[in-house]
């Protein structure tokens, strides 16, 4: 039996904090997205008001319709930004850069 198969059959305790259990817990959480509409946001709706029907080849079909449009509204929080987001950010700032100084002295390789 390989080591991998032993690991895959291993049961994790309830309070396990390994990467597999942490990922499973994080994926179970609902996604809080900027695109999820709130109670203030409202989608645009279109309603047919008057429809003209006609008999076409033995089947009643709509041949002309008038529609009413209710304009949508997007709150300030969910409005898209005017500028694209910044993709570049500092991950780790180690301070001032150290200049490269080449070694001019000869050296011998020790074995």
Describe this structure in words.
- The chain has 111 residues and is an alpha+beta fold.
- It has a domain at 3-31 and 43-78.
- The chain contains two helices and two strands.
- It has a two-stranded antiparallel ribbon with strand order 1-2.
- Strand 1 (45-56) and strand 2 (59-70) form a beta hairpin.
- It is elongated.
- The model has no long low-confidence stretch (mean pLDDT 77).
Key words describing this protein structure:
single chain; 111 residues; alpha+beta; two-stranded antiparallel sheet; 2 strands
Blueprint of the fold:
Blueprint: H1 3-9, H2 19-28, E1 45-56, E2 59-70
Antiparallel strand pairs: 1-2
The overall average pLDDT, rounded, is 77
The span between the termini is 43 Å
How many whole angstroms does the radius of gyration measure? 32 Å
What is the H/E string? HHEE
Given the C-alpha coordinates, what overall shape results? elongated
Summarize the structure.
It is built from two helices and two strands. With 111 residues, it is of the alpha+beta class. The protein has a two-stranded antiparallel sheet with strand order 1-2.
